[in-house]
Design a protein that fits this description.
This protein has about 270 residues and is mainly α. Helices cover about 75% and strands about 0% of the residues. A hairpin with a 2-residue loop joins strand 1 and strand 2.
């Protein structure tokens, strides 16, 4: 029941954020914005309480696939609330909340019975840093999709009320590269902490995860270097970002599915 409540709260908030950007609701924009913020805040409170009881178990984590996705969804909701402070980003906030709602509905989804493992604090810190990095870079993927759709609409000269959901393209691109910088730093820290604190990397079937993560780090680093030294922007930069994000998805969720569903193994 709590997952359904959180799902509905996030959906209603997404609708309110999107509506606040539409010209037809301009006179109610402030009320819609405040209502959306209240709905998100309630959803985040319920979501946090639900997840903390499921994930935090003694000195370890119960990181089933569903709980992990739901935790990233919670981060999306938090970031959407912060982003909505800027009126131009409320359309993006709506997109983040839509994904957050789907992620919240995945709470307690299981492929195999989850295993709770006692972990030292260093490994727990590594896991939290990794999940935070995934969440930030997921936000970037949504922003990248917004940017590519927006650019194509501008090239096709499509003018409609839907344009109100998009921030100016230059603002969207600056946001994307800001997120890329933060995500790159977080991912680098996550990989470094993993190499330092996770024992028996190959014995725990984590080699593929490490390789895909390093490839993603290389792609994001290349993108940042291209932006800084060559001024990369537009569709080329967006596609490179999405390629890096796909590698990151394979690093965690792809490997996780193969290990748990096909090989009956656990990386934890």
């Amino acid at each position: 029941m709590s997952e359904l409540t959180i799902f509905l709260l996030y959906l209603l908030a997404a609708a309110a954020f999107a509506s606040s950007r539409m010209p037809r609701f301009s006179t109610q924009a402030r009320l819609l914005f405040l209502s959306a913020c209240l709905l998100v805040a309630i959803g985040i409170s319920l979501h946090s309480r639900s997840l903390s009881g499921l994930i935090l178990v003694g000195d370890g984590f119960n990181l089933s696939l569903g709980n992990t996705i739901s935790m990233i969804g919670l981060e999306l909701a938090l970031i959407s609330l912060i982003a909505a402070i800027d009126p131009a980003l409320r359309g993006i906030s709506a997109g983040l909340l839509l994904l957050g709602a789907v992620a919240a509905a995945m709470t307690e989804f299981e492929i195999l019975p989850a295993m709770t493992t006692v972990l030292p604090w260093q490994v727990r810190a590594h896991i939290l840093i990794s999940l935070m990095s995934y969440g930030v870079l997921t936000v970037g993927a949504i922003v990248a999709i917004f940017a590519i759709v927006q650019e194509r609409r501008l090239l096709a000269r499509r003018i409609s009320a839907m344009n109100s959901l998009f921030a100016p393209l230059e603002t969207t691109e600056r946001l994307l590269f800001g997120i890329t910088s933060a995500g790159f730093a977080g991912l680098a820290l996550a990989i470094s902490s993993g190499l330092m604190f996770v024992d028996n990397l190959f014995a725990q079937h984590l080699a593929h995860k490490a390789v895909f993560s390093l490839l993603a780090l290389f792609v994001f680093g290349t993108l940042l270097a291209g932006r800084f030294f060559a001024g990369w922007r537009g569709e080329r930069a967006v596609k490179l970002y999405l390629a890096g994000f796909l590698l990151l998805c394979l690093a965690y969720f792809g490997v996780r599915l193969i290990l748990e569903r096909l090989l009956n193994l656990s990386w934890s």
